[in-house]
């Protein structure tokens, strides 16, 4: 790849929230593969904004928890310089006593198995130095008792995976990091049955406010950059101090 060639970046979960903010920020510098599960209108809107900023954009509709869909998705990606492994879900707020097998299966299929398979296949598309940023959560540290312990545990798995994969790939020049957002103002809370959750809990944040998707996207873009060239196998927190 020449110095002037644009880099290629895959973002999973790019039709909304943090993934969409990452795409819009990255568009001036990267050609983009934007994955999403079902929100065609959201994905098209992100694509239009990114193309207006100069990016070549390929939309890839695929459920990251479906191995066949993921295989078809990666068939459409010739090579990658970077991946933001962001797709994730919450389930409705409930104590562990109320969990059933289906809930846990879905949570871990998407947030853990899907993310690990995306990272595996993204790394295989990197034919030189590369970067993978996994989107974890401060929940990995907080545990989220009474809210969604399953989600917190899934994100703790991502942090451990980040350390292990970072160790495995360091000698190949591929860095692996994770970001732990705190309370961020996106639609994920409403999807989990708690619209307004970020605003409602903002008083628990030392900065006394929720974060925006762009405030998470900026540190993620930093981790992709040469400014983070000696960072791998670790994580940064983006939590307003929480
Ligand atoms: P969001 O606004 O709900 O967006 C989620 C994105 O992920 C959407 O593009 C969605 O696609 C996609 N997605 C969900 N399940 C998918 C699947 N199985 N396959 C492919 N794509 C899938 O959520 P967000 O707040 O931006 O969250 C992004 C990441 O940040 C998640 O990993 C989340 O756990 C993490 N995070 C968020 C917060 C927060 O407070 N918002 C805090 C900590 C960590 P469709 O809409 O097309 O289905």
UniProtKB/TrEMBL annotation:
It comes from the Bacteria. GO terms for molecular function: oxidoreductase activity. Keywords: Oxidoreductase. The keyword Ligase does not apply. This is SDR family oxidoreductase. Residues 7-204 form the Ketoreductase domain. Pfam families: adh_short_C2 (PF13561). Belongs to the short-chain dehydrogenases/reductases (SDR) family. SUPFAM superfamilies: NAD(P)-binding Rossmann-fold domains.
């Amino acid at each position: 790849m020449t110095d002037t060639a644009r880099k290629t970046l895959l973002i999973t979960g790019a039709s909304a929230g943090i993934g969409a903010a990452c795409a819009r920020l990255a568009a001036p510098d990267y050609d983009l593969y934007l994955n999403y599960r079902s929100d065609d209108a959201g994905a098209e809107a992100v694509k239009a904004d990114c193309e207006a900023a100069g990016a070549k954009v390929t939309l890839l509709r695929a459920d990251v928890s479906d191995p066949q869909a993921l295989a078809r998705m990666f068939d459409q990606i010739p090579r990658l310089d970077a991946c933001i492994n962001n797709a994730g879900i919450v389930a409705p707020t409930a104590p562990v006593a109320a969990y059933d097998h289906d809930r846990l299966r879905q949570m871990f299929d998407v947030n853990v198995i899907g993310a690990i398979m995306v990272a595996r296949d993204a790394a295989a598309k990197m034919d030189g130095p590369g970067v993978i940023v996994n989107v974890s959560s401060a929940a990995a540290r907080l545990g989220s008792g009474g809210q969604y312990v399953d989600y917190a545990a899934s994100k703790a798995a991502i942090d451990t995976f980040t350390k292990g994969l970072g160790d495995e790939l360091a000698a190949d020049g591929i860095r692996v990091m994770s970001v732990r957002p705190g309370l961020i103002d996106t639609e994920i809370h409403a999807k989990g049955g708690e619209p307004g959750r970020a605003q409602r809990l903002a008083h628990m944040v030392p900065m006394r406010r929720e974060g925006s998707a762009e405030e998470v996207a900026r540190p993620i873009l930093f981790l992709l950059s040469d400014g983070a060239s000696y960072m791998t196998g670790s994580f940064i927190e983006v939590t307003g101090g929480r």
